[in-house]
Each structure stands twice: as structure tokens, then as C-alpha cells.
Amino acid sequence: MTYFLMAEVALLLTLIAAKILFFPRLSVGEKSLLLERWSLNFSYEIVNRLLAFLVGTLILRSISLETASQSAIYFVFYILLLDFIFYWRHRFYHRWLWPIHQAHHSDSGYDFTLSLRIHPVETLVQMGFFVLVSSLMNVSAWQMFFAAHIFTIQALISHLEYKTPNTALLRGLKKIFVLSDTHRFHHDDKNPNCNFGFLFSFWDTIFGTTAKGQHHEST
Amino acid sequence: MNPLKCILISILFFAISVCADSASKMASIPSQSSDMANIEGGASFPAHQTSGISATNQLLAKAFHLIAFADCIAALVLFFIARSNAKTNYKKAKQFFLIGLVCFVSAILFFMLPKLLFLSPSFPGNFDIRAT
User: Fold this and answer.
1) Residue A200: φ, ψ to 5°
2) Where do the structural domains in chain A lie, given as residue ranges?
């Protein structure tokens, strides 16, 4: 589990380093805006991590996860189910719990730190879903942590400000996974209520919430 | 969210966790002394009977976690100062932000290191419970 966390932290630190290297090229106004945004986004991250660690420890002590199956297919099904729930949870937030989710959409810029800008209540709800699904599916603590890190890394990747190259492979991948280009549409004020997918983009295709301009942009 | 609220919430959760931690330990482990250590010729510190982690290493791990928590609080305060100065005093904001970032990174390190060092079965003073 420590190694998953290390991979996640390594990615986060690499992204921070990449942005800091690019930092001297920005104007003073852009720099101060970035400092303002990052200070708040990292504060959210610290509070959410502390919350996740402390509440997670308390939950794991009180429940016992009995492993039903260690097979890869079962794990893929577990991820699919989690992502399906996250898709509807996201739609629910936009429809009914906007004041909580607004924290994530209120950032004036767009980069990977946006994935850290999550309201603590949302973190608790997310953890609740995670524990509920994991208990119902009887997955091991190891699989639960692995899934949690997959979703955290995906959140960082989907909020990258860099445009993905327009290759056939990436166009194909976009039909299955949520990439930064796809998720950017979700944060665009011109396209409200679209691209709710977290890990898999086909939920949007199935439920008809794909952004209208997305196909024109990708071709 | 107001950073002051963030700090207060994190302190509250930390206090709850520490209380829950000590309460559950009091209930589950009646004595920290290990008979096994005495039989084997006396390790200087008793080992935890169920995990094989020596008491010294557990204490060190806890100390590292406390440092990580202190780093988190320091980073939150520094980020708050950086944020409030970002528009008026850019140089000061940059300094505070960078120190805050260092605290953030060190918090991650201090949180992860005990797992790799003190809480590892191969670390001096510990023994692998699976081998017994």
C-alpha cells in the first residue's frame, strides 16, 4: 500500500516540479494568481488527506473486510461498479448538492491542483461510497487501497491542462477513459452538465451526457 | 473554505484519532511487555506480541507521524499567509508558499518513512511474525 502511495506522491511531485520549472515564464499577475490558487488547493489537499487518513483508520478498525475473490476480473468489475456509482454521484452533486461541489468548480484556473480542490464533506461522502461498495463486494483492504489510488491518480491526470495529442490511439482511448481533454469540457461554463465520467467515459455515452462540441474537437 | 476552519477541523480529527487509538489499545493490549523477549535473552525493549514491531520502533513511528502532522499544520498556516499576500506582496507570498511546499513534502516523507523503516519486519529490533 505504501508503494501505491509513493507512486501517487511521485506523480504529484513531478507535476509540481514541471509547473515550477515553467514558472519563470509567467507574468507577475499570472504568478500571483497561481500562488493564490495553489495555496488554497494544497490546503484543501492537506485537510482532505488528514480527514481520509483519520476517518479511514477508524473505519478500517471497525469493519472486517473478508475477501471474496482475488481474481483480476472481479477487481475490474469492482472498479466498474465504483466508477458507475461515482458517475451518478457526480450527477447528483451537480443537480442537488451544488453548494458542496461548487468548491471544485470555483477555481479561476485549470491545472492538476484542481483535482485536490475537493470540499471535505465530498471527501467523506466519497469514502462512504468506497467503504460501502467494498464491504458489499467483500474485497480485500489491499484491493480497496489499490482502487483508491487508481481513482486518485486518474483525478490528477484528468485535470491536466496539457492537450493530449490527436492520435488514433488516444482518440480510441478517449472513448473508454476520461482524459484531460474530455474532462476539460466538464469545467467549461459553456457546457454545463456534461462529461460526468470519472475513470470511464462510456458512462457519458450510455447516458447521453457527452459534451456536444467534443467530437468536433477530437476529429 | 477558510484555512482557519481547515486547521481547526484537522486538529479536531487528530484529537479524536489519538483518543480512539489510546482507548482501543488500552482495551486490546493489557500489557506491552513481551515474555518472548525475556525468554530469548532479553531484547532491550519489549516487542509487540501481535505485530512483531518493537516498542522503540513503534514509538519512533508515532514520533514521525506527529512530525508529519505538525508539518501539515505548518503548511496550512504558511499557505494561508501566502494566499492572503498573493495580490499585495508577491515576494513575501512566494517565500511563504515555497516554505509551505517544503513542509507539505516533508509531511509526506515523515508519514511514509515509518512504514518503510520502523514498521518494517526487517528493521533492527523487529521480527517477522509470520516466521514464528
Assistant:
1) -105, 135
2) 35-218
